[in-house]
Every structure is written in structure tokens, then in C-alpha cells.
Amino acid sequence: MSDAVFWSLLVIVILAVNAAEAPPRAAPGEAPPAPIGLFANGAAVARMAIAGGAVLAVVVGLLSLAGANGTGSTVGDRNHELVSGALQVAAGGISLALFYFGTHRVPGLRRLREGAPISWLAILLFLESLALNLVPTASGSTSSTNPVPQPSSGPSAESLMLGAVPFLAIGIAAVGPVVRRNLKQTAERLGFWPLRLPWWVVGLAVGIVLVPIGDWVAGVLAHLTSAQCLQQATQAQQQIIGTGRTAIEQIGVAIAAGVGEETLFRGALQPRFGIFLSSALWASYHLQYACNGLPSTSNLYILLLGFVFGGLRKVGGLWPAIIAHAVYDATILLGWLGSS
What we know:
Blueprint: H1 3-20, H2 42-67, H3 75-101, H4 117-133, H5 157-174, H6 183-190, H7 197-222, H8 227-241, H9 247-284, H10 297-316, H11 318-334
Helix pairs in contact: 1-5, 2-3, 2-4, 3-4, 5-9, 7-10, 7-11, 9-10, 9-11, 10-11
């Protein structure tokens, strides 16, 4: 299955789950029609399907654990299967526990609507994403025979911009446009409306100031990082910055990342999961800065950036967060302000 088909199906599933709990629409002045057949219990059917997905995650994880000691496997492969299986079991098991016991006692999850199918789906996708992102790469180490990072053309601007589209599509679909909310309600839920134009200037200033401050913070964190990990982080950053893209392409990449990522993580997720959990998930999608396949101080820096963007979303709406994110990325991609 191609990535485009997978993400398209996921968006359809999210919209369908939103529609399962949406009240039937009626003409003005008329009582809503009574649902019939399967749709009379659409929410219950959606919950059963989502719970089945969590059970499947547990089963897949247990199978990975059981197969970790298969013949012919290297130590690295076995460890990879063990960690992958354990994370899958944890993701599915925690999801089922939250479905059953509710989220009202869990910090960061109290704003989820208990029993709502879309909340169940959000929990499962959140934990599954963490489980998949946190699996260490089978060969995360960098060869010591190449101590100097080499310039690279990096991925194309087109691939990077298209990579942000699923975040945008899932973020919009998650709040149920058309099926549960009209366009204005959708914009308000995501933080696109009201515009709050003065905060756009704040977002612009934050995006610029973050670069020198970020360089200083990264320098402090570098003292807690081994030379090998620093080398890997530098190579990852140079790979993303690339050498074969024009200034317009770099700006396009920055705008796509700002709009796509902020719509999902700060627009859709943060109002329900809070700043910390939404930022943690966002940081898990930046594990190209990992050290030997494991999270590093570079990922801690990404998490701190998430807190900044999340704060802007909380006080000024989504647009300041988008602007700050895009300006920060563009400044680094273009090499302005001495960013490294």
C-alpha cells in the first residue's frame, strides 16, 4: 500500500468516526429524523472497531515478542523486535485501559470527551504513533571513519512539502468538518479563527528570536552530549537543510512544515491533550536527531520548541504558532542570523 493511499484511508476513517457520533441533521423547524439500522448505534460500532484496533496492536506486539528469538536473527534484530513488540503491547494495553477506566483522572487527558469515539481513536493513534516513532533504528550508529559531516543535497523540496500534507489533512479531519462542525466552527476549534492580527507580529518576532536563543540552548545541551551524538545530529540537520534547493524552495518547505505540523499538533491535539503531550508527540516525529537510534538532547530541544509554539497557540490562536514555526525553519534553512 502506498503512503498516499494509507493516509487517505486514515483521513476517511477519522471523518467516519466523527460522523458516527454526529446528530442527524434536520430542516429548520423540524425534528431530527430517527436513525435507522446500523446507524442507530453508530457510536457503539465505532467504539467496538477502535477497541478491536487496540486489541490487534496487543496481539501484533505479542507476536513480535514471541518471534524475537527466531532462528537466524542477529542480536540487533532481536533487540529491535523486543522493543517494537513491547511498545506495541503498551500502546494497545494502555489504550484499552483508558477506554475502560476513562481519562478524567489522567493529567493531560481530562479534556477528552469520555466515551466519544473520536476521543478513543485519538488515544489509540496517539499511543500507536509514539510506539512506532520510539522504536530504535536497527543500525543507528554512525561510522567513526567519517568524522567530518559531509554536505548533502538532502531530500527534495517537493518531498518535504508533500510530507507535511498528511499532518494538515489529519488535523482538519480530526475536528469533524462538515460531518460534525460547519466551516466556521472548524476554524474556531483549530484556532484559525478569530485572526487576532497583533499576535501575528508576536509570532514573527518569536520565530526570529528563537534562532539565536536556540543556538545558545543547543550549545548548553551539547555539553551533555557525546561527540558521536553531536556528529549524528549535525549530519541529520545538514541532510534536512540540503545544498541543492533554491531560496524559494526552502521558504516553501518552511511554510509547509509550519502549516501542516501546527494544524495537527497545536490546532487539533493541544486543546485535548495539552501542551506537554502534544509537544512530546511532535518531538517524536523528529527522531532523525536521535543518537544511535535513541532519543537525545537534540530531541529535548525539539520538545522545548514545542512548548514555545504551544504557548503561542494557547494565548494567540494557531496563526502565531504557524508563523513562528515557519519563520524559525526558514531562518535556519536559509542560513540567516548565523544559524547553524
